[in-house]
Structure formats: C-alpha cells, structure tokens
Amino acid sequence: MGLVPRVVVDVMPKPEILDPQGKAVLGALPRLGFSGVTEVRQGKRFELQVEGEVTEAVLADVHRMAEMLLSNPVIENFEVRVEETA
C-alpha cells in the first residue's frame, strides 16, 4: 500500500487574541506536576482526504475553505499543508 496524501489545515488564534482555553491548560499543568511550560495556545486541526492528486488548484480550494468555513479570519490564522500517510 502506498502513501496517501492528506491536506491538513491548522487553525490558531492570532497572537494578539486572548486564548482562555490555552490559559486554562497552562494553569492546570503545574497542578499536574508539569513545569517549564511558559505559554499554551489551543487551536484546531482539520484533516481533509481529497480525490485524486493534490494539485495547486486543490490547495487553493482548501485555502478558500479555510477562509470561509474552517477559520474565523478576524481572530484566527491558518496554515494549509500536505502530509503523507500510510
């Protein structure tokens, strides 16, 4: 079986936007015995399986999906990339 391409969209809050979920995780880590973490930002990951080859046109479509549906461009940044999976 060969490698299957998967398009991944990572969505994160913009740096200037407060991240209460990340702050909650950061506060919980020391109570669980973990130290040395100075910041936590929580985001979302979308994995898209697409038909056929992942072309520039497919990536452009995924970019538009991320802008229109998968993220809120006012408060979030996103990154589109391709991963190979077994």
TrEMBL record:
Which EC number(s) are documented for this chain? 6.3.5.3
Domain of life, per the record?
Answer: Bacteria
Q: Which gene encodes it?
A: purS
Per the UniProt record, the source organism is: Nocardioides nanhaiensis
Quaternary structure and partners = Part of the FGAM synthase complex composed of 1 PurL, 1 PurQ and 2 PurS subunits.
Task: Tell me which Pfam families the record gives.
Answer: PurS
Q: What is this protein called?
A: Phosphoribosylformylglycinamidine synthase subunit PurS
Q: Where in the cell is it found?
A: Cytoplasm
Reactions listed under catalytic activity: N(2)-formyl-N(1)-(5-phospho-beta-D-ribosyl)glycinamide + L-glutamine + ATP + H2O = 2-formamido-N(1)-(5-O-phospho-beta-D-ribosyl)acetamidine + L-glutamate + ADP + phosphate + H(+)
Q: Which UniProt keywords apply?
A: ATP-binding, Cytoplasm, Ligase, Nucleotide-binding, Purine biosynthesis
Record-linked InterPro entries: PurS (IPR003850), PurS-like_sf (IPR036604)
What's its job? Part of the phosphoribosylformylglycinamidine synthase complex involved in the purines biosynthetic pathway. Catalyzes the ATP-dependent conversion of formylglycinamide ribonucleotide (FGAR) and glutamine to yield formylglycinamidine ribonucleotide (FGAM) and glutamate. The FGAM synthase complex is composed of three subunits. PurQ produces an ammonia molecule by converting glutamine to glutamate. PurL transfers the ammonia molecule to FGAR to form FGAM in an ATP-dependent manner.
Known pathway: Purine metabolism; IMP biosynthesis via de novo pathway; 5-amino-1-(5-phospho-D-ribosyl)imidazole from N(2)-formyl-N(1)-(5-phospho-D-ribosyl)glycinamide: step 1/2
Similarity remark: Belongs to the PurS family.
